Amino acid sequence: MKKDSSTAAPLLDRMTTKLAQSKENDDRQFVTALGRGLTLLAAFEHHDQLSHQQLCKMTELPKATVTRLIYTLTTLGFLRTTIHGQYQLGSNAVRLSAIAWSRHDVVAFAEPLLRQFADQNEVSVNLATEVEGEMRYLACCRSPARLSVNLQVGSAVPVARTAIGRAFYAVSNPTRQKVIDTNLQENLSKAEYEQAQNLLDEAVDYYQVHSYTLSDGEFSNDILAVAVGVFDVATGHYAYSLNASVPSANWEAKEYAKVIVPKLQELAERIGSGV
For a tag on the chain, would you pick the N or C end, based on fewer CB atoms within 10 A? Predict the structure, then answer.
């Protein structure tokens, strides 16, 4: 079947076309300022960071208009300024993205599997991906056992101090790891960044040997968690990671990993393959 050209075109091109059409048709119901703001956000579809000049060139909007849009979107939390003076999507854009992802086919497919897994194994199980140097939760199923940290869809946790973050980093390709490193460097102090980098380097080595990562009381002192990467067959790369956590008082770390990791790996394979 021939692919629809409008679907195949980059988001920015499609939105720019719509802006032009609304002007040509003198569509008075169309809010041009809003359309321009969303077009500016669309420029980030394939870019982690963009400069003011790049945004002007890509959107073909006047410099003064881009300046006002950046100010508004930054004020509202949909853009943020990096330490290098460029711009990237802000926390509110990321939060909306996470909610949208929670309705994505892969996540929708995963949710009943997560519920079943949580019930059968009496663990909390979560699916996440990395955004802006944090792990953003896309699907969550809590254990009957109460945990001190109650995470929901859209919640974010550190990459380096959590099993789910370490697993994602460990399975990511070098290009993605470099992006994560940059995100961490921009959001952490020098000392915190160096510590995070050491933890992630150790996680890579650990994952290569054991095929999972472990966090025992590091993110929260009473939570024990293991995590694995999720290879998305549709995209051909590791797009998510998956963890299973319990109160640390209930298990010894090695025994817990021995019992739950093979099951978690099987779950990750099912989610990634979509079968």
Answer: N
